[in-house]
Write the structure tokens for this entry.
Amino acid sequence: MKYILSIIIFAFSIVNIYPQQDEYITVVGDSLVGKVINGESVREVYGNVILRQADVVMTCNKAVQYLAKNDADLIGNVVVKQDSMTITTEAAYYSGNLKKATSTSGVKLDDQKVILIADSGDYFFDEDKAVFISNVTLFDTSATLTSDELIYYKEEDRMIAVNNVKIVQEENIITADSLEYFRNKRITYADNNVGISNPANNVQIYGDHLEDYAERYYTLIDKNPLLIQIDTSYNKVADTLVTGMIDTIFSMKIDTLVIRSNIMEAWRDTIDLFKAKDSVRIVRSGFASINDFTIYYRNEGEIITYKIEEEAKQPVLWYDNSQLTGDTVAIYMRENQIKLLEVFRNAFILSRNEKYTNRYDQTSGERVVLNFDEGVLSNTEIYGNVLSIYYLFEDEEPNGLTRSSSQSARIVFDDKEVSEVRLYGTPASEFYPENQVEGKELTFTLPLFKFYTNKPGKNELLKADGKRQMADEK
């Protein structure tokens, strides 16, 4: 047989029947309804309700206190305080034994360091830990973080966010499936489907593990890194006016730089520097490269690729139908177009004839400089122990080849075709007629001759899984 005992008290002060120890909840309010239901004592408190447990103070419009469980339901304009931290919500459940507050009615936490809001959340007062779920947003003075779930360790100034994570900082934006953020040190660790972008320079880096040290302006991505930069360049184009006069107009071109490697680092301070290490692949309109180590100075528009060990393979660079190799290959961009290309030590240039695919124009030297005008190759300068093989054509028909040597050389191009070759310093040339060349083309090669077959493509890099292989030699 169930019975209910009801007592109404107005303008009261309540002290629990339990001994006055910090682990028990005390409550005061304007009025009380006391009940015993199924043997359990329940108190409903109305108006200006204040609940206390040690240093935790809670206020609300109504409280339902479960004496035996040492729990309470808090209803209407709920405010929970502990030291400098304040939690506000419309309804909450407080467990005195666990010292834990739970809300599913929209919750906001403000500890004067961060502001944290979500659809629902738990706060563990003894652990100084918040667990917030659904539409989570965290604000502090240097970043805004959003996610589906977030754990905030108040005393450690550390937070762990999971699912649809996005952190917006002054310098960059980071997205990931999961993220750990140390607020005081501004250090971020992110995993799976990671992206970091800087709106100021159009650079985006993706990967599956990221470490970002914002105070040092340094980022490391060491799992499947991919860099993408989208730029706009302008080419001069001759246009005929209605009057018949020739005018120059500028044609806009969207250009994308893509870099893949096993490890990537970025410094975003005044130098805006990127480093790619181990199985590096680069693609940009007009050229591509495979190498072991690349440094990209974004502000200066310089891309430098290196051979990092004596026994390692040389960097390989393709430009149009030409292939370049050397111990170091440097690309200099101006206004997002190639201005200069330099190859240092054991430099070698190879151009394959599009029609006669066994015929390779070749040049080697200690240093090679390719000069460009409006992104088009204008001349090539070769220095130090120059060797060259060039195939000759007459009326587009093959007509033998010349083999030359000198101390330096200059090759001038007109509409991407060789128009002039000058040799300097004890030049020597030898002509081979067509009947000595046809069918024997691959016997006419320089000592540095190597032909690489797997020039990387943009789509390949965008779809790659991070396990890289260097170019195969033929």
